[in-house]
Amino acid sequence: MSANGLHDEIRELNLAYLMLTQHMLRDDRAAAIYRLGIGEEVADMLEGLSSAQVLRMASSNMLLCQFRFNDTMLVDLLSSHGRERGAAHLHAAILAAGRPVESLA
């Protein structure tokens, strides 16, 4: 894939992520903050972005979303295919909830 093609893919993903984030925050703020792993201050900023600001941010060559896990246990729990899948996903959610939220600092 060319550099321009990769940048286009990142822009599309960023735009979808920002639009989904704003929708989630407007629909159920508390659940969105938990699911996104962000703090109140970041939520305020993202929710208040204008359409032009969303487009500018999305056009960055930096991926704006990130995985909330950095260990193999969470990856294994989230990718579980067995009969205990529901329990594994619940366990993963509990582990993720114990992680600190993102801040602007």
From TrEMBL:
It is found in: Cytoplasm. The keyword Cytoplasm applies. GO terms for biological process: bacterial-type flagellum assembly; positive regulation of DNA-templated transcription; regulation of bacterial-type flagellum assembly. The keyword Cytoplasm applies. One of its GO terms (molecular function) is DNA binding. Keywords: Activator, Bacterial flagellum biogenesis, Cell projection, Cilium, Cytoplasm, Disulfide bond, DNA-binding, Flagellum, Transcription, Transcription regulation. GO terms for cellular component: cytoplasm. Functions in complex with FlhC as a master transcriptional regulator that regulates transcription of several flagellar and non-flagellar operons by binding to their promoter region. Activates expression of class 2 flagellar genes, including fliA, which is a flagellum-specific sigma factor that turns on the class 3 genes. Also regulates genes whose products function in a variety of physiological pathways. Belongs to the FlhD family. Homodimer; disulfide-linked. Forms a heterohexamer composed of two FlhC and four FlhD subunits. Each FlhC binds a FlhD dimer, forming a heterotrimer, and a hexamer assembles by dimerization of two heterotrimers. The C-terminal region contains a putative helix-turn-helix (HTH) motif, suggesting that this region may bind DNA. NCBIfam families: PRK02909.1-1. This is Flagellar transcriptional regulator FlhD.
